[in-house]
UniProtKB/TrEMBL annotation:
Pfam family, one: HAD_SAK_2
Protein name as it appears in the record: Secreted protein
Record organism: Actinomadura livida
Amino acid sequence: MGSPLVLLDVDGVLNPFERPHRGYKRHHCSPNGMPFKLWLNPGHGRSLLELTESSGAELAWASYWCDNANTWIAPRIGLPELPFVPIPHFPGIEEGRTLGAWKARHVAAWTEGRPFVWFEDEPDATECIAGEPDVAEHLLVEIDPMTGLTDEHLAAAATWLRALAR
């Protein structure tokens, strides 16, 4: 078993869907050549780095942004370039998959048996990741996509990671 992972989604987690509260800044970007507006809190980077440093965990992206998160998100919140789960574009509802199930499949495979915390806003992700074969011990921190990542979410992850280390 390797060191634990802390996996980050972007939209709905670091970029809330409602206009966020104090501390967030508006950014314009163009991943894949498409204009996009983001609300990001520069304090999240520092908090996430503190979480991983205090727990010996490794931080990685688990988002459809994939490596684009390193270009458009990481520098704006003070994170270094991070590894990322290669999540391909969602194939569509017609194949009977939900977004949570699609992402969970790729996350479970990428973690290769390492324990992980996953900050995710897909409503069915908890059920889907638990149903993946051979998935490691994990905590899915369910984020309300309207408000995004909070100190309470970070505290829950820190508590779980401390217990894991015992």
